[in-house]
Amino acid sequence: MMNKIATFIVILFLTGCNGQEKKESKNKSMTEKFDIVQFDRDRTTVYDGDTMTSASATDTVKDGIRTRILSDEFYIEKIESEKEPFGIYKEFYKDGNLKKLASKMLVSYIDGFAPWGKVYEYDKNSKLNNETDYAKVYQNVKVNPEVLFKILKDNKIFDTDNPAKHRLSVWFHDQTLKSKEMVFNRLKYEAGENPFWEVIRDYRLHDEESVNEKVFKIDAVSGTVKEIR
Q1: Span 51-58, mean pLDDT?
Q2: Could you say which of 42, 73, 202, 219 would form a disulfide bridge with 224 (CB–CB 3.0 to 4.6 Å)?
Q3: CA 178, CA 113: separation in Å to the nearest integer?
Q4: How many CB atoms lie within 10 A of CB 77?
């Protein structure tokens, strides 16, 4: 009997701790603020006696390269790793309160449309008013964004260790996202076909070289890679 009571107490304790951790994690996201004072210090330099203020500041933090930017309407903070295709993206209201948090957004050296991770949006009082889980976009396919980059590496199309990182764009196409297609997309989704990834790889290492593009179509259901041109 005593063993059962002890086991029950342990379960209650662990459950309570787990619930508290989730609550604290959620509250941390909701109450996170942009350090405006520190940002103003970091973006200000004195050169030859003149004080110059930039609209951005870049430094290194534990998770990668952090870039903070002042826009007309809000502050932006991006944290990107040199070895990963996705980074953290945040927007803050002008008072420093968190406005938007995207847990996995394409890093700046990769162009395109590959929604992934979760996006949280907050009102001006730091109340969560919208949460989007982009895993649902890929629930009926095999190739989500994480799998895509594994396929690109396995097929020697793109690797984050490649020095020409900025020469890549990826785009997800399916029936529901057809409205996201742009005029510059090389490929278009046709009714009835499998969802697919459009991948454009420019093999130039320098801007002054002639354009040397290759376009790949990767079936998001089967994972089959086809070079279009």
Answers
A1: 94
A2: 219
A3: 12
A4: 20
